[in-house]
Amino acid sequence: QVQLVESGGGLVQAGGSVRLSCVGSGSIFRRYVLGWFRQAPGKEREHVASINQSGVRKEYADSVKGRFTISRDNIKNTVYLQMNSLKPEDTAVYYCAAVQHPRVFTSASVYDNWGQGTQVTVSS
Asked: pLDDT band at residue 20, thresholds of 50, 70 and 90?
């Protein structure tokens, strides 16, 4: 398993930008598919973005496509989520997750390593 720690969340004005980071330790980071998920109060946890082991393949939720960018640095054992043009509906707890060689990337159920989450609040 890999241990994951998120950072970078906070309060931001609508239209602003935030970069989330997630640092992994305890395993071979480059072997893992990585994902960002979010959960707002009263809503289901949803896929935001994911990235394959090499960083070549990326998947995005339709709601964030063109605004968010996922990237990874396997030397630093870190995955990032750059969030631009933020909207109030982006407000949620954001989680990073990792799994080795999943069949799919966008389902939370396939991930077996999770960070504790970081709150992102977008104000009007």
From this structure: very high
